[in-house]
Write a structure and sequence with these properties.
DNA repair, DNA excision, six-stranded mixed β-sheet, 984 residues, zinc-finger, zinc, 18% strand, ABC_transporter-like_CS
Length: 984
């Protein structure tokens, strides 16, 4: 049965009916990665415009617009103005819905329907492909290689053309036909006494009584057990606890050319019983030689199965490393995690999993062991001998010194770590979760992080196995494939010709969109939204489709100005081959290179939803809209001429060596706004997100996540806490909203509970929650909507018939504050709420901050699932700002300008400056020059991405970095500062 898909199906999912798609629409190449959405089976490619009439989705105000087809069109405007509502929730949703309607009613019943967007009519719609940011896979098995399909082609290339080598001797494996084996024996063992053997057991324990009976029934009289020839006897068996090699004696003969027929029969018989392998034993020298129909090491007899594509797949049991199950890393219990603080004694909780002393068996065992050494449980761990600690952790097999006459400890002791390891396989989720806090991820010792079993890693092309290729960055991989044909045999070239063409093509597309620093081994969940989006863009360029409408959501995210040009060229290439491209974007370069621009606004939320300007970039310039004012320089983000002096003290991270970092020592001046910059893949996230933040998080909050390797850190005592504000969603259910996340809803509920009407009725704060029984409407359980299943039509969401969408029961809604019920408050925008709660300081402080970060257009009860990554990040930022700070907090923000218009960046810069003015340190990882130029201190990492990055190129004030002229950031910053204005 086909899997039911949600209406949010986007580029990273494959339709369960993809085969039907490809057959009907002749769009075979695209079905692998992205859902294709057809307006009709023969799209009206002649129509000059996509015409939208009366779009009212979300905050759109009856928008009607003509969008030229076959052009690069940019939708821009202030954050929350309705760009995504028009692009994704109207145009894309309608295109996808129309495509779904081409299926039968029966098929649609499995797929789940799609709601008709709130629009009167859309004409001239092509098949639509959406490439969004939110579709990144969290699966640890999903890698850059698997989602670009390069790894799949590599697997096929290795399965068909690679040469096998023995993992034991390194010799090339050979494969022989029956005739080759016979000819070899006749040539090399002429006139010698030979015993032809068929191996049936190789290196396994057991008594094998039944096997010997079976062999006797087949008519054989002798076997060779562990190198010794024996006659088969009734009830014969071997030691079940020892490892054995057992072969059937097929024939004993003197090798002569005239006996070729007998030898041939014996060889075939031996290969049949030995399942493709056999041995010959030279009776005179007592030496054996292996032969096999399969790949085999002629010295040791190790044989490999014939390679198939799944032999090289870490997601298949045929190829995955058996130790780490194809993940490349294992969870290990380490001594440091079991004994985090060696100054403590065992009785005070020095062995973390045991906790403090209790009168239980394990502590009695430890007490007896220590007593023998004249030590006690109250002795600090660092005063115990190392040898004793090792015995406590790893176990004692027997206590040799125990005197049986004395009542002393004399039993073997399992050890703390072996005990914990056993618990890792427990059926209980709680126990496994408990053990997890004492484990650390380590590279798998069996496969060394390559994820594949050792046999798979001994198939090589040009002396490289598939694992070595997957850890090369794309640039290095491209150069390895250059001229590969000259290094291959004629046979390999004939088989691999088409495969090499496909691989090179896909590598070329990744280079085209500026991702040369990634490697195929990189896990998809470590990619930024912009990187995963550009990977899917590269895949789409590869499909070479024509007449398609592509809709993209800010593909420039996470992209340095240097790489912007490549991205714009990639989008123009998509347009030039005959497609229409719509990009929701704030980037100045992208707007200036568009064929047509739609500026939506004028404000955000209820103040937006209208087209304020449209036309070519030049037309927009002259329109006088907010966007045009920033583009033309009428409005600008002002710089401070005087930079902050800060505290004069630094947080110093020394010797960072993780990923591509080259022994970096970074100084972060405290009490300043610090920007970490550099091209994509230069090592910014490795330094901050994967090294600095985990160090601070472990120090202040005892977090378990380990930082990447580093030398030392100085200055931790100068700050009192660290806060990271990232772009992950604030909640994954519609019940989560800005009011609940920021904690202001708790204050609002307390306020309603304190009203005289609520006190008379005995209502507490819980009465005003829509998540618990009591005050909520029980018909819809506080959701406000009922979902009516319509089988093969989309589910219909209707307001709850009992509460009419108001979430609460009538009694709760009768309690009012300033004439408004709790539902009215949730439906209120942040802007209105600031006025409404002006005399409630506890509530006002939290709402005021939401307004200051530019989220005045959101309603307090807006569903978390409808917020963009940038909005979610600003809600988190507002939550942190709403707390009372100590002036010694270290804030880390990862690309806070994501999804922000120039005007919003101005707001954000003000908020961050206020935060630093209070004495805090704010560190931002950023590409946006508008925010970089207002920083007090810049640390520029590079010069390139991947292996060519990982060093500090320049640091200092924006002016100093621009003047130094080192690295790409400095060059672009110098241009930006020429046109920037300083505040008086």
């Amino acid at each position: 049965m086909a899997k039911k898909t949600s209406p949010a199906t986007t580029a990273d999912t494959v339709s369960p009916f993809s085969q039907a798609i490809t057959a009907e629409a002749e769009l075979t190449a695209a079905a692998t990665t992205d859902t294709l959405t057809h307006s009709q089976l023969n799209p009206a490619t002649d129509a000059p415009f996509i015409e939208v009439y009366g779009a009212r989705e979300h905050n759109l105000k009856n928008v009607s617009v003509q969008i030229p087809r076959g052009k690069l069109v940019v939708f821009t405007g202030i954050s929350g103005s309705g760009k995504s509502s028009l692009a994704f929730d109207t145009i894309y949703a309608e295109g996808q819905r129309r495509y779904m309607e081409t299926f039968s009613a029966y098929a649609r019943s499995f797929m789940g329907g799609l709601e008709r967007p709130d629009v009167d009519k859309i004409e001239g719609l092509s098949p639509v492909i959406s490439i969004e940011q939110k579709t990144t896979s969290r699966n640890p098995r999903s890698t850059v290689g698997t989602i670009t399909e390069i790894y799949d082609f590599l697997r096929l290339l290795y399965a068909r053309t690679a040469e096998a080598f023995s993992y034991a001797t390194g010799e090339k494996m050979i494969r022989q036909s029956d005739d080759q084996i016979i000819n070899y024996i006749l040539k090399h063992f002429k006139d010698r006494k030979l015993v032809v053997l068929a191996p049936v057991v190789k290196g396994r324990k057991g008594h094998y009584r039944e096997l010997f009976q079976q062999v006797a029934k087949l008519g054989f009289t002798k076997v060779r057990v562990d190198g010794e020839l024996l006659d088969l006897t009734p009830k014969m068996q071997v030691d079940r606890y020892k490892i054995h090699d057992i072969e059937i004696v097929i024939d004993r003969l003197v090798t002569k050319e005239e006996d070729r027929h007998r030898l041939s029969g014996s060889v075939q018989n031996a290969l049949t019983h030995g399942k493709g392998t056999m041995l010959v034993l030279d009776s005179d020298s007592n030496k054996t030689q292996f032969f096999s129909r399969f790949l085999m090491d002629p010295t040791t007899g190790i044989a490999y199965d014939d390679p198939a594509p799944n032999t090289f797949s870490f997601n298949s049991p045929y190829g995955a490393c058996p130790v780490c199950n194809g993940l490349g890393e294992v969870q290990e219990i380490t001594e440091d995690s079991v004994m985090p603080d060696k100054k403590l004694s065992i009785s005070r909780g020095g062995i973390a999993p045991l906790g403090e002393y209790r009168d239980i068996w394990i502590f009695q065992q430890l007490q007896l062991i220590l007593k023998k050494q004249k030590l006690s449980l109250s002795t600090p761990l660092d005063k115990l001998p190392d040898e004793l600690i090792q015995r406590l952790l790893h176990g004692i097999e027997e206590d040799e010194d125990a005197d049986p006459k004395k009542a002393s400890y004399s039993e073997p002791f399992e050890g703390i770590i072996p005990f914990l390891r056993r618990q890792m396989d427990s059926d209980s989720d709680n126990i496994r979760e408990w053990i997890q806090q004492y484990t650390q991820s380590k590279e798998c010792s069996e496969c060394h992080g390559y994820r594949l079993k050792k046999e798979s890693l001994h198939f090589k092309i040009d002396s490289k196995h598939i694992g070595e290729l997957s850890v090369m960055d794309i640039k290095e991989l491209a150069s390895w494939f250059e001229g590969l044909e000259s290094r291959l045999t004629d046979r390999q070239n004939i088989i691999g010709k088409e495969l090499l063409k496909e691989i090179r093509k896909r590598i070329g597309f990744l280079l085209e969109v500026g991702l040369e620093y990634l490697d195929l081994h990189r896990s998809v969940r470590t990619l930024s939204g912009g990187e995963s989006q550009r990977i899917r863009l590269a895949t789409q360029i590869g499909t070479q489709l024509v007449g398609v409408l592509y809709i993209m959501d800010e593909p420039s995210i996470g992209l340095h100005q240097r790489d912007n040009e490549r991205l714009i060229k990639a989008l123009q290439h998509l347009r030039d081959i005959g497609n229409s491209v719509i990009v929701v974007e704030h980037d100045k370069d992208m707007i200036m290179n568009a064929d047509y621009v739609l500026d939506i606004g004028p404000g955000a939320g209820i103040h937006g939803g209208s087209i304020v300007a449209e036309g070519s970039p030049t037309d927009i310039f002259e329109s006088g809209s907010l966007t045009s004012q920033y583009l033309s320089g009428q409005k600008h983000i002002e710089l401070r001429r005087q930079k902050r002096k800060g505290e004069g003290k630094d947080l110093v991270l020394k010797g960072a060596k993780g990923h591509n970092l080259k022994n970096v020592t970074a100084k972060f001046p405290l009490g300043k706004l610090v920007a970490v910059t550099g091209v994509s893949g230069s090592g910014k996230s490795s330094l901050i997100h994967d090294t600095l933040y985990p160090i601070l998080n472990q120090h202040f909050f005892n977090a378990k996540r380990d930082p990447l390797p580093y030398g030392s850190i100085e200055g931790l005592e100068l700050i009192d806490k660290v806060i990271e504000v990232d772009q992950s969603p604030i909640g994954r259910t519609p019940r989560s909203n800005p009011a609940t996340y920021t904690g202001v809803f708790t204050e609002i509920r307390s306020l309603f509970a304190s009203l005289p009407e609520a006190k008379i009725r005995g209502y507490g704060p819980g009465r005003f929650s829509f998540n618990v029984k009591g005050g909520r409407c029980e018909t819809c359980e506080g959701a406000g909507m009922r979902t009516i299943e319509m089988n093969f039509l989309p589910d219909v969401h209707v307001p709850c018939e009992t509460c009419k969408g108001r979430r609460y029961n009538r009694e709760t809604l009768e309690v009012r504050f300033k004439g408004k019920s709790i539902t009215d408050v949730l439906d209120m925008t942040v802007e209105k709420a600031v006025e409404y709660f002006e005399n409630q300081p506890r509530i006002l402080r939290k709402i005021q901050v939401l307004n200051e970060v530019g989220l005045g257009y959101l309603t307090l009860g807006q569903q978390a699932t409808t917020l963009s990554g940038g909005e979610a990040q600003r809600v988190k930022l507002a939550t942190e700002l709403g707390k009372k700070d100590t002036g010694k907090t270290f804030y880390i923000l990862d690309e806070p300008t994501t999804g922000l218009h120039f005007e919003d960046i101005n707001h954000l810069a003000d908020v961050l400056q206020k935060l630093v003015d209070k004495g805090n340190t704010v560190l931002i990882i950023e590409h946006n020059l508008d925010l970089i130029k207002v920083a007090d201190h810049i640390i520029d990492i590079g010069p390139e991405g991947g292996a060519a990055g990982g060093s500090i190129v320049a640091q200092g004030t924006p002016e100093q970095v621009a003047k130094a002229g080192k690295g790409y950031t400095g060059k672009f910053l110098a241009e930006e500062l020429k046109t920037s204005k300083y505040a008086d």
